[in-house]
Design goal:
alpha/beta, 2-enoyl-CoA Hydratase, Chain A, domain 1, four-stranded mixed β-sheet, globular
Length: 275
């Protein structure tokens, strides 16, 4: 129970005005994620699908950093092995990735609700990809992104090689990953890695404004729009045309689309309910 309480303190969760706030609160470790913290973030995102209390999500952090990636000092379970066996043995890092980061990133990307990253400080490595998997990114003026991997002799992980070229193009993605230089907030906005840059004191209010606006919108239409956009760069034109047709079909049966049509005819603002 004590461990559960600590985990809930390190990854805080609350719903206010139909906005779910997921806050990384480990400033003493720079908001680096232990496996347990990583899995709690994943589970919180997955748990928001199909429920009605929240209709938008904000992912943010406390302190000076957003997230520098994984907490490499955290204990990680490993299989029993002979005394002379290598640690790790071939296959273990791959399984760790598939069971860890490669479950977290899709949980954010595929969340049925619109997700906003409110980046308060440096987001590096996996931490940068946490932000980039969100639908919208707002950064503090002092925040920055870093594709830090090659500085440490590492290769990119956490689906960075998938998301980055889709945001900035292949050649620019190579530059950012090979040189691993800091990307200040203003440059991130210019490159299309974030939507808006605000003073640090305005970050939470800016995220709240956007999130509460989205929380009053047609939630299922947002879900289908996200799905189509996320698919659009991975499938051919004929496939997206078929999927678009199904999305229109599915959305046509929601209460919100009927309300949208009725409000247009009655010349009033729509009152979307989220279903």
């Amino acid at each position: 129970m004590a461990d559960d309480r600590l985990l809930e303190e390190q990854i805080r969760f609350e719903i206010v005005n139909q906005v779910a706030w997921i806050t990384i609160d480990r400033p003493e470790r720079g908001n680096a994620l232990t496996p347990a913290c990583r899995d709690r973030v994943r589970d919180l995102f997955e748990g928001l699908n199909g429920q009605f209390e929240a209709r938008a999500v904000v992912l943010t952090a406390t302190g000076k950093l957003f997230c520098p990636g994984a907490d490499i000092s955290a204990d990680r379970a490993s299989a029993a092995r002979p005394d002379d066996a290598p640690d790790p043995s071939m296959g273990e890092p791959r399984r760790m990735m598939l069971r860890g980061q490669h479950t977290l990133m899709p949980a954010i990307l595929d969340c049925e609700l619109p997700v906003i990253a409110a980046v308060n400080g440096t987001a590096a490595g996996m931490g940068a990809h946490l932000a980039l998997m969100c639908d919208l990114v707002i950064m503090s003026e002092s925040a920055k992104l870093i594709e830090i991997f090659t500085r440490r002799g590492l290769v990119p992980d956490a689906l960075g090689a998938w998301i980055l070229p889709r945001l900035v193009g292949l050649q620019k993605a190579k530059e950012l990953m090979l040189f691993a230089e800091d990307i200040p907030a203003a440059e991130a906005e210019r490159l299309g890695l974030c939507n808006k840059v605000v003073p640090a004191e305005d970050l939470v209010d800016s995220a709240r404004e956007w999130a509460e606006r989205l929380a009053q919108g047609p939630t299922k239409a947002y879900m289908l729009t996200k799905w189509m956009l996320n698919r659009s760069l991975d499938v051919d034109r004929h496939t997206i045309a078929e999927e678009e047709s199904w999305a229109v079909e599915l959305n046509h049966h929601t209460a919100d689309v009927q309300e949208g049509i009725a409000s247009f005819r009655e010349k009033r603002d729509p009152r979307f309910r989220g279903w």
